[in-house]
């Protein structure tokens, strides 16, 4: 196969008129097909089959692990994650009993001590767990899996609940990357979303991560929250820049109170208008790029010397359920309630309800709720969408050689839409190579959606977020 030319980043262009013209909703493409296409016809036997196929594969490529910790002791009104609100730490002990069962069952299906190149703890709030409980989870993982010395081992942190000692403990356990939730530093906004968090406690966590030798610290911000305006978010971004994180994620708040019940506590009258949200985004993008951060894709920015930036420049950036990744595409095993995994040509999702999750493990089988096995067409389109999302480019020759197709014939229905995007300056396409233009990079989801056959041909009950 002829390799795709390495992507050379140029400055992204915020074309407000074009963004307003093409505004819409669509998938974030942490997978293709997207999770709303998973179905109950895929079950435990299917997942076990693909685990066993992975085990007998000749390459034995290292895997990625995702561990979901569903507990939070307070509720953030904007949150759409699968979570359980409680202050009872003993509930976590029970959960870890079952998580250990699942880890052992997965390891038994693999039949050997699998190597792990990536590990991510998400939630909920992973640091709801005590230091002892965190040690217990890591001991169970280390018993059945081998964490590689050069691996990426990350955890999501709520600075309101974590001090320096816990961060140093995480470093001793092997974590070397951290994602710090901030969202907004404005007191009125924090009150409106029920997340009161000081700059001091946030900086304490970030400084402790550096003391512990963490290789990367990422912070999460959200725009579109109640009572936000361009000036207030500018002040938050200034404070974040002063903390000097390696990566910054700037997420668009999706207000879907019919889907996420906690959002019903938000006063819709306090939400910024669509025009004001674009003001906030435009100003924030300018602040971040002026400060030297590189636009990675969608809502992610990183320092020029960060691993994500290097992976983007070298054409090896990947995207999965954990977001952007610096490693080559690998199988990902999801552990814990509601977690999603990808093994071979399949996706699987665990039971979303914790009692159903426990019941499955009590019955001695993996807690699979739903999933799907991809067709060859799904795999082809996943490759196209991955290339667009991660490299802002697509080599027709590479796709043709890999999948044995004639690109123009196979994508005859899609090409007129690509030509339309070319006419408005989102991309260039000469029949051999598609390159997303600087002003098309903020609209990359719109471009990727062109190749989403499921979106075009099959209805879904899912409600997607705004593409920007």
UniProtKB/TrEMBL annotation:
Q: Which domain of life is it from?
A: Bacteria
Q: Which GO terms describe its molecular function?
A: coproporphyrinogen dehydrogenase activity
Q: EC number(s) in its UniProt entry?
A: 1.3.98.3
Instruction: Decide whether keyword S-adenosyl-L-methionine is in the record.
Output: yes
InterPro entries the record matches: Aldolase_TIM, Coprogen_oxidase_HemN, Coproporphyrinogen-III_oxidase, Elp3/MiaA/NifB-like_rSAM, HemN_C, rSAM, rSAM_sf
Where is the protein localized? Answer: Cytoplasm
List the Pfam families hit by this protein, alphabetically: HemN_C, Radical_SAM
Catalysis performed (reactions): coproporphyrinogen III + 2 S-adenosyl-L-methionine = protoporphyrinogen IX + 2 5'-deoxyadenosine + 2 L-methionine + 2 CO2
| Family matches, as PROSITE patterns | RADICAL_SAM
- Name the major location: cytoplasm
What's noted on cofactor binding? Answer: Binds 1 [4Fe-4S] cluster. The cluster is coordinated with 3 cysteines and an exchangeable S-adenosyl-L-methionine.
* DNA-binding among keywords: no
Q: What pathway does the UniProt record associate with this protein?
A: Porphyrin-containing compound metabolism; protoporphyrin-IX biosynthesis; protoporphyrinogen-IX from coproporphyrinogen-III (AdoMet route): step 1/1
Per its Swiss-Prot or TrEMBL entry, what cofactor is needed? Answer: [4Fe-4S] cluster
Identify the keywords attached in UniProt to this record, alphabetized: 4Fe-4S, Cytoplasm, Iron, Iron-sulfur, Metal-binding, Oxidoreductase, Porphyrin biosynthesis, S-adenosyl-L-methionine
The UniProt record lists the Radical SAM core domain at 57-291
The family assignment reads: Belongs to the anaerobic coproporphyrinogen-III oxidase family.
Binding partners and assembly? Monomer.
Q: This chain belongs to which protein, by name?
A: Coproporphyrinogen-III oxidase
Query: From what organism does this protein derive?
Result: Vogesella amnigena
In the UniProt record, the gene name given for this protein reads: hemN
């Amino acid at each position: 196969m002829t390799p795709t030319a390495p992507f050379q980043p140029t400055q992204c262009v915020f074309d407000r008129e074009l963004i307003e013209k093409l505004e819409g909703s669509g998938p974030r493409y942490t997978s293709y097909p997207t999770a709303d296409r998973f179905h109950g016809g895929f079950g435990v036997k299917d997942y076990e089959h693909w685990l066993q196929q992975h085990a007998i594969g000749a390459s034995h490529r290292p895997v990625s692990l995702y561990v979901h910790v569903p507990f939070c002791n307070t509720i953030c009104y904007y949150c759409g994650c699968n979570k359980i609100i409680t202050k009872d730490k003993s509930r976590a002990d029970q959960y870890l009993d079952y998580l250990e069962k699942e880890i052992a069952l997965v390891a038994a299906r693999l039949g050997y001590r699998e190597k792990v190149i990536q590990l991510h703890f998400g939630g909920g709030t992973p640091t709801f767990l005590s230091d002892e409980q965190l040690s217990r989870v890591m001991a169970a993982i280390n018993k059945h899996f081998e964490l590689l010395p050069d691996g990426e081992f990350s955890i999501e942190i709520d600075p309101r609940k974590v001090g320096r000692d816990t961060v140093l403990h995480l470093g001793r356990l092997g974590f070397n990357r951290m994602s710090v939730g901030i969202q907004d530093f404005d007191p009125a906004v924090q009150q409106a979303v029920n997340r009161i968090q000081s700059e001091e406690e946030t900086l304490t966590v970030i400084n402790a991560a550096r003391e512990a030798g963490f290789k990367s610290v990422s912070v999460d911000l959200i725009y579109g929250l109640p009572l936000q305006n361009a000036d207030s978010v500018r002040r938050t971004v200034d404070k974040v820049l002063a903390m000097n994180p390696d990566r910054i994620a700037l997420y668009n708040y999706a207000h879907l109170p019919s889907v996420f019940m906690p959002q019903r506590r938000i006063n819709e009258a306090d939400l910024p208008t669509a025009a004001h949200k674009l003001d906030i985004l435009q100003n924030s993008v300018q602040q971040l790029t002026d400060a030297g951060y590189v636009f990675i894709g969608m809502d992610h920015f990183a320092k020029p010397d960060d691993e994500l930036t290097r992976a983007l420049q070298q054409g090896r950036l990947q995207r999965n359920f954990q977001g952007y990744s610096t490693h080559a595409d690998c199988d990902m095993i999801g552990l814990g309630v509601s977690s999603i995994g990808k093994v071979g040509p399949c996706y699987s999702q665990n039971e979303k309800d914790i009692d159903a999750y426990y019941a499955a493990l009590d019955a001695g089988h993996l807690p699979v709720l739903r999933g799907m096995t991809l067709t060859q067409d799904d795999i082809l389109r996943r490759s196209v969408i991955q290339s667009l999302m991660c490299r802002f480019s697509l080599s027709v020759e590479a796709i043709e050689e890999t999948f044995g197709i004639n690109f123009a014939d196979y994508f005859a229905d899609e090409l007129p839409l690509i030509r339309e995007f070319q006419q408005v300056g989102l991309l260039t396409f000469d029949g051999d190579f598609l390159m997303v233009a600087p002003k098309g990079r903020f609209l990359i989801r719109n471009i990727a959606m062109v190749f989403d056959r499921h979106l075009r041909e099959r209805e879904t009950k899912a409600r997607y977020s705004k593409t920007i």
